[in-house]
């Protein structure tokens, strides 16, 4: 893919339409949107419904315009998923579909815990009250604990965290909305990690986010040696941050001292699983259907919404009436990136596979970690599989095995 490639007209029009969306008359769109997303995380169910209603309402007014842009974008998309990703996604979607029922049951447990009658789309982002709120510790103590947790599963984990502290590569900064991130303050220098000020005191439930950002730093440090100056492949952008995050989850779930809050923390984590393993697959299926329909001719709003309702009801187990994912999902409107969400899903599957490897074979050596990173330098998924010594195409059963950590986490006790 040529990065210089011109932004397609239809995608430009999509972005312009998105920017024109106003949540309230007076406030500027950006600020108001931040407040509304905070509302979606609120403990009060009424608050969440209100935020959701305002968000969806603002987008829904433009449904016909979005539908016509969608038809144009999909009409221009190539459907050769196999060529782009080096695999057929159908067995992956089938395996992910098999974990659906476990996630639905977990979503209902979460709904009960956060004062809703059953799963509602507006509750996807809701925080479970007091999940792991106990025993907040100062950042320095949290880093020491994190070093020990990582060392249990990854050789050199402790030394890495100590190096981050010693090198003053972790910073707390004022962030209006939580947005932990990494960047390079000195051009050509190492990546630094930036966390919101509230990480002055770290709760157990915040440890996975801290581990995630440190995972980016660890990944970048190694890439600086292996492939200096080269960009990270999109498919594996999040794989190694999710790996460190996954290690901390293993520890939190198994750790006796956190056992009392285990279920709450798991239900809090369910947001990510819902997005990765229900929303992305639903969107991929929807995109496939839209591309197919757009090639058959006109794609009226009614047809878009009917397909959306059918596919989303199947993935989420409830009707998506009044939801707006099909309008908000940028990748659907960019003809350059058909099935863009598959990159996230594939990267996530690789991180789960690495976690499963640790669970079954024990602590990962530094050499094993380096090899895993080295093997992902190519952006092609089948290339990665080959380097891992797998020559046969991935079957649904292979993907299903990789999803075992998710099944174990959310299965009822
Ligand atoms: Zn990340």
Instruction: Give, in order, the helices and strands.
Output: HHHHHHHEHHEEEEHHHHHHHHHH
Characterize the main sheet: 3 strands, mixed
Which ligands accompany this protein?
zinc ion
Q: How many individual helices? A: 19
CATH topology of the domain at 78-283 and 337-413: Neurolysin, domain 3
Structural class: mainly alpha
Which overall shape is indicated by the principal axes computed on the Cα atoms? globular
The unreliable regions are: none
- Using the coordinates above, name the CATH class of the domain at 78-283 and 337-413: Mainly Alpha
Helix content: 55-70%
Give a structural overview.
This protein starts with 8 loop residues before the first helix and ends with a helix. Helix content is 60%, strand content 4%. The chain has a three-stranded mixed beta sheet with strand order 2-4-3, with helices on one face. Strands 1-5 form a two-stranded antiparallel ribbon. The chain is mainly alpha-helical and 413 residues long. It is built from 19 helices and five strands. Bound molecules: zinc ion. Zinc ion binds at residues 212, 216, 238, 241. Zinc ion (ZN) is lined by residues 212, 216, 238, 241.
């Amino acid at each position: 893919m040529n990065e210089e490639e011109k932004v397609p007209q239809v995608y430009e029009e999509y972005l312009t339409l998105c920017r024109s969306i106003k949540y309230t008359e007076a406030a500027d769109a950006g600020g108001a949107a931040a407040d509304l997303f905070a509302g979606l995380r609120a403990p009060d169910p009424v608050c969440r419904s209100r935020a959701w209603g305002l968000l969806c309402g603002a987008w829904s007014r433009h449904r016909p315009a979005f539908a016509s842009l969608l038809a144009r974008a999909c009409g221009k998309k190539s459907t050769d998923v196999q060529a782009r990703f080096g695999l057929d996604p159908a067995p992956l979607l089938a395996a992910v579909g098999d974990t659906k029922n476990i996630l639905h049951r977990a979503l209902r447990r979460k709904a009960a815990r956060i004062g809703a009658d059953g799963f509602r789309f507006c509750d996807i982002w809701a925080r479970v009250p007091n999940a792991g709120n106990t025993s907040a510790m100062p950042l320095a103590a949290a880093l020491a604990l994190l070093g020990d947790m990582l060392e249990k599963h990854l050789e050199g984990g402790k030394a890495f965290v100590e190096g981050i502290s010693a090198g003053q590569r972790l910073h707390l900064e004022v962030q209006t909305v939580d947005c932990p991130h990494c960047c390079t303050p000195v051009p050509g220098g190492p990546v630094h990690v930036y966390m919101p000020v509230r990480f002055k005191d770290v709760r157990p439930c915040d440890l996975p986010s801290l581990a995630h950002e440190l995972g980016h730093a660890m990944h970048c440090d190694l890439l600086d040696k292996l492939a200096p100056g080269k960009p990270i492949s999109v498919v594996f952008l999040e794989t190694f941050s999710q790996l460190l995050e996954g290690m901390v989850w293993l520890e939190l779930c198994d750790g006796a001292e956190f056992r009392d809050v285990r279920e709450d923390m798991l239900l809090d984590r369910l947001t990510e699983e819902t997005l990765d393993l229900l929303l992305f697959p639903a969107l991929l299926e929807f995109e496939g259907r839209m591309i197919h329909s757009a090639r058959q001719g006109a794609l009226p709003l009614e047809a878009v919404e009917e397909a959306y309702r059918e596919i989303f009801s199947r993935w989420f187990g409830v009707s998506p009436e009044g939801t707006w994912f099909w309008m908000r999902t940028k990748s659907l409107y960019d003809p350059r990136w058909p099935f863009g969400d598959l990159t996230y899903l594939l990267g996530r599957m690789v991180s789960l596979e690495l976690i499963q490897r640790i669970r079954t074979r024990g602590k990962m050596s530094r050499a094993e970690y380096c090899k895993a990173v080295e093997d992902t330098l190519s952006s092609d998924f089948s290339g990665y599989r080959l380097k891992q010594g797998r020559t046969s195409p991935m079957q649904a059963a292979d993907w299903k095995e990789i999803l075992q950590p998710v099944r174990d986490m959310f299965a009822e006790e």
